[in-house]
Amino acid sequence: MHVENEDMRLEMQRNKEKDIEPIVIEAKKSFKGSPFKSKVREIYYSLLSLNVGVKNIGDVIKTVLKFLNVEIDYLPSIKTVRNFNTELGIIAKNQINETVKNSKNITLHRDATTKKGRHYYGIEISTEGETLTAGVREVHNGTADTYVNSLNEIIEDISLCSGESSRQFFYENIQNSMTDRCATESKVNKILNENMSQNLNEFKCSTHPLLQFSEVCEKEISVLEKEFQKDFKIDSQSSFSNVLKSVSKLFFKDGTGDPLLASNYIKSKGIKNIPLINFRGNRFNIAFYNSAGVYFLKQHLLSYLKDSKTSLNYVQTVIVKCLENNFFLSILRAMGILSKIVTEPYFRFSSDKDNTILEMDGLCNRLVDLLSTAKQNPHLLLCNSISLLYGPCVRQSNEICECLFLPSDSLDSLTSIVLARLCKVLHAKCEHIFKDYLKHGKYYSTSEDITKQAKTCPTNNITVERLMAKVDSNLRNSPNIDIPNLESRVMYKKNETESWLSKKSESEQEFVVQSAVKLRKDVQVENRERKNQLFQKSIQIIEDRKRKKENTEIKKEKKNKKCYKITLLNLVL
Q1: What is the mean pLDDT of residues 541-565?
Q2: Which of 262, 323, 380, 502 gives 258 a disulfide partner, CB atoms 3.0 to 4.6 angstroms apart?
Q3: What is the distance between the terminal CA atoms of the chain, rounded to a whole angstrom?
Q4: For residue 110, what are the β-bridge partners?
Q5: Pairing of strands 118-126, 174-179
Q6: Mind giving me the DSSP string for 426-484?
Q7: What are phi and psi of 307, to 5 degrees?
Q8: How far is residue 429 from each of residues 208, 368, 413, 502, 560, measured CA to CA in Å?
Q9: Are 459 and 351 contacting, i.e. CB atoms less than 8 angstroms apart?
């Protein structure tokens, strides 16, 4: 009886709700032109920054409001929504202008990437409290002059959108630059210093050296492979790089690999998390990290391939050959030990967002000292008796570490030789790339002014590399998107412009949004002009190549004629 009464009550409640008239929201203002209200625009800004499709935003809003028994009297057309893309970019640039104007000792981050023949340049700034995206540009080439022009163009855009001289704020308040180790960026800094009243503190990303560590180690390993080729019967299929890539393919690539069954087999042995990363692109520390994982999994890999496969393909054959060879086991073990003692602690410190760039001096000096000691006494690494970071020694107790540091009569001697050789080349590389932080380097013992200026500079340039990854992702999802619209969405989302705007008073919010509406057409005209200029520059590159080819062919023809005349003359004589 109670249940029937409850059902009747719920049914009556539903009927009552059906009878309630929905609340109707007016989307437009009542004065001349009937523009959309600022709050309506802000909803669209937020959804656009989340990459909701222009054609779908209206349906999303209607669906959400329907559940709240609310209706909106009018929604923007698709053309109007596309205009909102420009407006949210203008608002995001206002945020940048305000931040630059009110901040001192700013750090300038820069990076570039190429996707499908198109070159992009990204700028970010770091203050003591946050890191913000300042802009993204498509450029026609990767020269230093082009990069500087792109930076100035971004600053001009911020000035246009804010109505203030942002160029003055930028060049007065920027004290540091943080870039990767590309030679072009050093030229950019040189040009910037010529235009500034003060010289930039030029810092390089501290995480990028991990890629160089891998390169020098792999190069030295190639030398070792040639030296030990006869002793360990190393054939053309077997190499350190081959075994790492082959194991990666086994777990991550369809076709030549066996991702599902190989992973399930390893998990059936009680290993829940497979200690490997997909060998793709220039991932930091991947060669060292995967070496440790392959050495740890060696017996399981051999058992899986030899016991469950009637025949082996090329990838599987490489794995078996290398994991049955003590030379490659020693290489993998040595690289794995370096991963646990050197590269992983270094990676954690250099990628910690709480550390600043000048805190790297102690770590760099310690790294050089460790490698200097280890190349003479590699057994310290082999026995896990030395560490990169100062302080109480914390023994690593996971299964991978136990496997790497477990004594082995058949491998210890050769592993020590490999460790000594790798530490020698790493030591030489570190002395070169960290020279600014070593004794007599310009950042070894800094003044109070430089120490204060560098407080805004993080240890790495990963933030702007993530920006370029977002650009890449957006281009994959929307290959026909205009770069200014992509820039607007990325800036609004990444900089949390919506949160910045919400902290202002109602009147300030209204002013910022309406200013964006008024400036929209001017910004769109400027963007169209730049797009046309970029196209013309691309055509000019083609024409220059044609002229260069023609000149080369003319020179070649003249040279051939000259040679022909000399030959005839010699025959006559």
Answers
A1: 86
A2: 262
A3: 128
A4: 123
A5: unpaired
A6: HHHHHHHHTTTTSTTSTTTS--HHHHHHGGG-BS--HHHHHHHHHHHHHHHH-TT--HH
A7: -90, -25
A8: 13, 9, 25, 49, 47
A9: yes
Angle of CA points 108, 114, 117, to nearest 5°: 145
Query: Is residue 363 a contact partner of residue 349, using CB atoms and an 8 Å limit?
Result: yes
Q: Provide the angle, in degrees to the nearest 10, between the axes of the packed helices 259-268 and 286-308.
A: 90
pLDDT computed for residue 422 by the predictor = 97
Question: Which residues face 288 on adjacent strands?
Answer: none
Q: What share of the chain is helix, strand, coil (3-state, %, to 5)?
A: 65, 10, 30
Query: Cα separation of 544 and 552, whole Å?
Result: 12
The SS3 call for residue 284 is coil
What is d(CA 118, CA 123) in angstroms, rounded to the nearest whole number? 17
Q: Is the pTM of this model over 0.90?
A: no
CA dist., res. 22 & res. 25, Å (int): 10
Q: What is the torsional sign of CA 380, 385, 387, 390?
A: negative
Return phi, psi of residue 46, to 5°: -65, -45
Kindly state which CATH superfamily the domain 85-205+461-537 is placed in. Answer: Ribonuclease H-like superfamily/Ribonuclease H (3.30.420.10)
Write the pLDDT tens digit of every residue in 293-340.
Answer: 999 999 999 999 999 888 999 999 999 999 999 999 999 999 999 999
Instruction: Write down how long the chain is.
Output: 573
Domain residue extents for the chain = 2-76, 85-205+461-537, 209-448
254 vs 263: CA distance, rounded Å: 13
